[in-house]
Amino acid sequence: MSRPRLALLEPDTWPDDMKALAEGPLGALNVMKVLMHHPDLFRRWSVFANHFLFKGALPARAREILILRVAWQTACEYEWSQHVVMSAKECEFAEAEFAAIQAGPTAPLWNPAERALLRVADTLIAGPNVGDRDWDKLRDHWDAPQAIETLALVGNYVMLAMALNALVVPPDPGYPGFGANPPPTPTPNVTQSSPLAPRPPPRIEPLSNAEADRQTREILAKARGQFPTVNIIDTLAHHPNLLRRWLPFFNHCLHKQTLDPRQRELVILRTGWLAGSAYEWAQHVPIALTRGVTPDEVEAIQPGSADDRWRGADKAILESVEALMARFTLTDTEWRRIATQVTPPKAIDLMFIVGQYRLVAGLLKGLNVQFDAYLRFPPLLP
After folding, report:
1. Rounded-to-integer distance, Cα 312 and Cα 309, Å
2. Does residue 199 sit in helix, strand or coil?
3. For the chain, how big is the Rg over CA atoms in Å?
4. Residue 65: CB partners within 8 Å, gap ≥ 6?
5. CA 246/CA 285 separation, integer angstroms
6. SS3 for 126?
């Protein structure tokens, strides 16, 4: 592995409220050291990330199977190294489990519930998408909150893999890497065709206010903003703890990240198009038009960075989105192009926004979330 693309910041340079993390049982991990280039993002994302590790609805064995499969399929050595150790300690995983994770859903070690998890993970990593048969098998063994968490967990670790790979974060000392037999180069199915609107019915009906308890209604009111209902939010309300812990990071990506609003919308729209998410496209084209993206640029986002209408920072941003979606990483040349156009916090935000909206696309398509009444696909251009 080559040198990290951003310096690994030691704890004495961290913000005061972050320094205590270095004194925890795991110490100052390299993932922390690199993300301290953007401590605001780290604060908000870690609330979401810690849900999966410590407070999630899935048992530890299922969680570790999913994380390790994501690490293998995205060729993320850092994630693999961390969770080989964690799964051995918490779940007594050994060579048999690690070999079966590399082999995937067909390995004879897995029981039907675990095989269902792995099939969904593989389609989300490749797509993101979940076919009817894979969804039905998942629901045969896992309840609604666990099924929602499966989609979100895979999306979170794909997002993290993008950043770790693109920033070339090395495994921490003493943690095992891939060794002599690394995984094959990832080949996700990045589509260039127009996204398709969802066909009814949803796989999980949105939760209504009448069905929600008081605490969930409060979360919904905060998450919906100006709208009385929002189908993706109302569907995730079947897992209110996940929804509540996701909101700080969601708000970061939409309102508090360091890219300017126009650049943010370029990232979201290109990600949504490549992920085949009609919902994201319908939602964000109108937003983009109010943030300085022109109708001509909306059309140019569809063919992407190769379109000769793109120049400078816009072109580098779109190239980075396409590389992350296609390979979960950036080449040295791609990194140099984006690094000359944006600051380290902006580069990190770009990676996490791509990952966030790929995650959201996986939730939307996996749950077959229907359009809200105010959405139109394709959206009208002036």
Report:
1. 10
2. coil
3. 20
4. 97, 101, 114, 117, 118
5. 23
6. helix
Residue 196: φ, ψ to 5°: -110, 140
| Core vs surface per residue 327-361: b (16+ CB within 10 A) or e | bbbbeeebbebbbebbebbbbbbbbbbbbbbbbbb
Task: Answer yes or no: are the C-beta atoms of 120 and 130 closer than 8 Å.
Answer: yes
pTM: 0.98
Per residue of the chain (382 residues), what is the pLDDT tens digit? 579 999 999 999 999 999 999 988 888 999 999 999 999 999 999 999 999 999 999 999 999 999 999 999 999 999 999 999 999 999 999 999 999 999 999 999 999 999 999 999 999 999 999 999 999 999 999 999 999 999 999 999 999 999 999 999 999 999 999 988 899 999 898 877 789 999 999 999 999 999 999 999 999 999 999 999 999 999 999 999 999 999 999 999 999 999 999 999 999 999 999 999 999 999 999 999 999 999 999 999 999 999 999 999 999 999 999 999 999 999 999 999 999 999 999 999 999 999 999 999 999 999 999 999 999 999 989 8
Q: Report the C-alpha gap between 336 and 201 in whole angstroms.
A: 45
For 30, the enclosing helix (H) or strand (E) is helix 30-35
Name which of 265, 173, 250, 260 is nearest 219 in CA terms: 250
Phi first, then psi, for residue 165 (nearest 5°) are -70, -45
